[in-house]
Structures are given as C-alpha cells and as structure tokens.
Amino acid sequence: MRDGSFTDLIAPYERVALVLQGGGALGAYQAGVVEGLFKHGIHPTWVAGVSIGAINAALIAGNPPERRCAALSEFWNRVAPPSPWEGAESLWRRLDPDGPSISILNQWSAWRTALSGQPGFFRPRAAVEWAVAGPFAGPTSVYDTAPLKKTLEDLIDFDRINAGSIRLALGAVNVRTGNSVYFDNATQRIGPEHVMASGALPPGFAPVEIDGEFYWDGGLVSNTPLDHVLEDQPRRDTLVFQVDLWSATGQAPRGMSEVLERQKDIMYSSRTRFNTDKVTYEQTLRNQLVALLDRLPDDLKDTDEAKALRTAACGAAINIVHLIYRRKSYERDTKDYEFSNAGMREHWESGLADTLATLAHPEWLRMPSRGTGPVTHDVLRG
Fold it and tell me: How far apart are the first and last CA of the chain?
C-alpha cells in the first residue's frame, strides 16, 4: 500500500497516539516499531511513555520528524555499544541462533551490566559513598544516573518539546503519596529531570526531586499509560498504537530463572488485556449514553439526572492497534537489563518486523463507528 494511502486512513482521526510501556533493554523493540510507522508516513501527535518508554517518547517529541529515527538509533547505540568481542558474539549467535549458548551470552552480558553499568546511562556508585554513610543511612540507589542526564541533553531538544508540536506525557510515581502522576507538556514545562523521574526504578535508580517532591518509575503503579491518553478531556477520535514490552500470557515456569521472568512479565504487563478491554467497555457505554440522551424527550433533557449523565457521555471513535514484544526462547529473567548491542539490534528488528506485519492490514487503521464502540487489533489475535 502506498504511504499516501496510510495518510488518508489516519486523516479522519483527531489525534494519533503512541503509548509506550517500560521495560529497560527491551525498549529497543519500541524504536523498531517507530521506524516501521515512519516508513509509512505515520507520525504520532501524542506520545505517552513510562520508564524506557518515556525516554523513547522524549527522543521522538524532542526531535524534528526527519531526525527522530536517527536520535533513537544514536541513543540505543550509545547505551548498548558493540563490545570488543562483538564480532565473536555475532558469529556465535548466527551459528546457534536458538540454542542454549545464546542464553549464556545474554546472561554474561546482563551480569556485566549489573557490575559495570551501561555507558551513557548509569554507573555503579563508588564504594566510598557506602562506606562513609554508616549502617543506617546511605545512597538511595545502587547506580548513579548522571550519564543519562548528559545523554538526554545531548540528544533531545527540550525547547522543541515545550513548544508543543507533539504532546508528550511521562508517567511517574510520587514517592511520598504513592500516587501515579503524569508530567505532560500540555500543562507544564518538561526537562531532563522529568524523563529521568519516569525511569527511576528502585533500588537501582534513586528518586528524582522535582519542585520539592520525589518521584520513582511510573511502572511501580502502572506500566501502561493508555488510561492517561483515553481519559483526557474532551475525548477525541483517536488512533492508538500501544507498544508493550511484557506479555501477560505465558507458560508455567520450569525453574527459578523462569519464575523470576514470569513474575516480571505479569507485574509489568499491567494487566494489558484487562485494561484494554476495560477501556473498550467504558467508551462503548459513553457512546451509547450519547445516543440515548439524544433520544430523550424535551421535558427530560434539562433534568438534573440528564445533566449529570451528559457529563459522563462522550462519543468518540477509538481504535487501538496493539503490538506486544514476544520473548525469544533463550531469554531469561535478565532480559530487561541485557544491553548487548546484538540483543538491542534483535529487539529493534523484532519491533520493525511486527509493525510491518501489522501494517500489512491497512484496513485495521480505518476509523471505527462510534456506534460499535472502540476496537482493538493485533497480529497474533487477528
């Protein structure tokens, strides 16, 4: 299908939203999705992210359209650079693409990250920071994320973000209240600290102070910012590309590594299918309520009850195109901090392939009828 045809399909929507979960090293999958969308001329008008999804979102919103894929590529190659033995690892992966040896390589890469950090992202705190603190105080994180701040400042134009050509929302958690919050350029100025707060997952990363409050990773409460986009007022006809890094469904674990992996999958998937179905059900009710209120006789339209219902009624066409990263057979519980360059490229290529497979169904992008309620599409569910 010609790119112009995709442009025609999405033109009726009032906004095109890109919703990005958190998931550490798995976030390269989202960059592949973005490349696939851009190949077909599909550019979001709103990007919402949590954790690594917030970083990818800020890279998109903080660069002009022609620079966005390059900025994503530069970020991912900076934080997951080729190792001195990358050539040998790549050969090993080609010779045994699905074998247990790849799992060993990935485990080694993850252990290396845990011990040494990642360039341009985070580094272990110096031993002296722990030594001078005493037994009952000390650093509030294992790693220092000062390198990430410089990376963000190098690759993101925050003036562009705050000019508002694309809406940007970043999910975090207020440490004091435990409540989920969203930093949104529609209502406040966004800086590097807001992006870092969204990804400050304890105990690895320290909380980030903003205006006297401290914030942790938004994934602690909700790792999927879909609700924030669809609950925005006034509700609008919206095409959503929801990109998840954790699958809620999976096999029963057969060992402790698989137990830990499955725990993460369930915890960080944020009940993806449940939330999508819940959003669909609620918006269907709102659409039906609009139709019902329009049929009321004149003597009932101005009653207090009708006025109260009208505040909840909101007709909007919602189309959710869902892409979910599917684990490789050799991945284990360390997959979210396995930052090898080869692993990063595999994730990126998976995101690109899944997006191109999705866009092979251009009819999925057509705006649904408000009468039928929101619809959801993904390749695996068909």
Answer: 19
Query: Residue ranges per domain, the chain?
Result: 5-378
Which tokens is 8 given? Answer: 């025609």
- Residue range 194-208, pLDDT digits in tens: 999 999 999 999 999
Report yes or no on whether pTM surpasses 0.70: yes
The kind and range of the H/E element at 168 are strand 167-174
Its CATH architecture, for the domain 5-378, is 3-Layer(aba) Sandwich (3.40)
- Contact status, residue 155 vs residue 139, Cβ threshold 8 Å: no
Count CB atoms within 10 A of the CB of residue 1.
13
Burial 133-163 (b: 16+ CB within 10 A, else e): eeeeeeeebbbbbebbeebbeebbbbeebbe
Catalytic-labelled residue, pool 51, 109, 198, 222: 51
Place of tokens 């851009």: 38
Q: How far apart are CA 301 and CA 338, in angstroms?
A: 59
Catalytic, 369? Answer no
Q: What share of the chain is helix, strand, coil (3-state, %, to 5)?
A: 50, 15, 35
217 counts as catalytic = yes
Q: pLDDT digits over 213-269, tens only?
A: 999 999 999 999 998 998 898 889 999 999 999 988 888 888 888 888 888 888 888
Local structure of 361: helix, strand or coil: coil
Q: What is the largest CA-CA distance in the chain?
A: 79
Q: Which of 184, 217, 336, 354 is catalytic?
A: 217
